[in-house]
């Protein structure tokens, strides 16, 4: 073996080892145990497709699927346009834009757990900062239950938007900076307004970047659960319990109010089903995106 090939294999081996140990092996383990009744102790009992039959009957799981759809849709509908608007504003040449870019990007580097704790202090119904400010300036007369059954999903969506908008904003800025300035100059000579430039120049040329951002936003929204776990733990009454949070509770029932035991077999089946749902949504988006490419 040539020294150059040997060096290449030496560099690949650590990454390959980590992939096998922390990626391939857990996947194969889960694929096996989704056909078993196994709670982490004792001998696994083979039950065939019973776990999948249980999923069909599991109303709590399907509620989590519905909540995930609401959470993802609410996040996407606001985050993508807001990120684009901020990118357009902060891509212009004006003093202090670098500072504002840093300010909007800063939330993306925070831990989801820390972010959720901070927002719990802000949105707390009894002594939260937001309610105190609103009551101080007589905007409301009594505290709003931001984390109750009527408002908890909206609150989690707001937090998700705050944490994601800066990341997508920077990606949009990168896309905007790749558009030749001559195209805007030519559009100005033709008498195009700012809105016409946005519609006929900016948006079409941002197509590839926007497709990537939307794909990233969809997968992130469907798999997100960390901040919800810390902020509401899926409550109240399961109103904010999303798919991956439900899965986490089955595999790691560490909650103070969790009554069930660890369910590794059923959790593996739920994890596989959840992956299929995320994959199906991704494939649907790919098909839509492909058709849009054919049109434009």
TrEMBL record:
The keyword Amino-acid biosynthesis does not apply. The chain crosses the membrane at residues 7-28, 70-90, 102-123, 152-174, 203-222, 264-286. GO terms for biological process: transmembrane transport. Keywords: Cell membrane, Membrane, Sugar transport, Transmembrane, Transmembrane helix, Transport. The keyword 4Fe-4S does not apply. PROSITE patterns: ABC_TM1. It holds the Pfam family BPD_transp_1. Its main location: membrane. Residues 65-285 form the ABC transmembrane type-1 domain. It is found in: Cell membrane. It is a multi-pass membrane protein. One of its GO terms (cellular component) is plasma membrane. Belongs to the binding-protein-dependent transport system permease family. This is ABC-type sugar transport system, permease component. It comes from Paenibacillus polysaccharolyticus.
């Amino acid at each position: 073996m040539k020294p150059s090939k040997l060096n290449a294999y030496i560099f690949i081996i650590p990454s390959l080892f980590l992939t096998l140990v922390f990626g391939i092996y857990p996947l194969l383990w889960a694929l096996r145990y989704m056909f078993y009744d196994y709670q982490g102790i004792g001998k696994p009992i083979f039950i065939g497709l019973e776990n999948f039959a249980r999923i069909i009957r599991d109303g709590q799981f399907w509620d989590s699927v519905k909540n995930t759809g609401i959470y993802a849709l609410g996040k996407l509908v606001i985050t993508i346009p807001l990120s684009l608007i901020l990118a357009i504003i902060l891509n212009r040449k004006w003093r202090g834009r670098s500072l504002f870019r840093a300010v909007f990007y800063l939330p993306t580097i925070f831990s989801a757990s820390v972010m959720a704790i901070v927002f719990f202090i802000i949105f707390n119904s009894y002594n939260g900062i937001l309610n105190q400010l609103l009551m101080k300036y007589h905007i409301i007369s009594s505290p709003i239950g931001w984390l109750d059954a009527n408002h908890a999903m909206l609150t989690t969506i707001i937090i998700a938007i705050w944490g994601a908008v800066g990341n997508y904003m920077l990606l949009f800025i990168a896309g905007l900076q790749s558009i030749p300035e001559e195209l805007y100059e030519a559009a100005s000579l033709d008498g195009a307004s700012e809105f016409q430039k946005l519609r006929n120049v900016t948006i079409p040329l941002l197509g590839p970047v926007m497709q990537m951002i939307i794909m990233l936003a969809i997968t992130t929204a469907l798999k997100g659960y960390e901040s919800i776990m810390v902020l509401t733990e899926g409550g109240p009454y399961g109103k904010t319990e999303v798919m991956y949070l439900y899965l986490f509770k089955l595999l790691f029932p560490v909650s103070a109010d969790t009554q069930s035991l660890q369910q590794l077999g059923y959790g593996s089946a739920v994890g596989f089903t959840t992956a299929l749902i995320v994959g199906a949504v991704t494939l649907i988006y790919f098909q839509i995106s492909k058709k849009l490419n054919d049109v434009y």
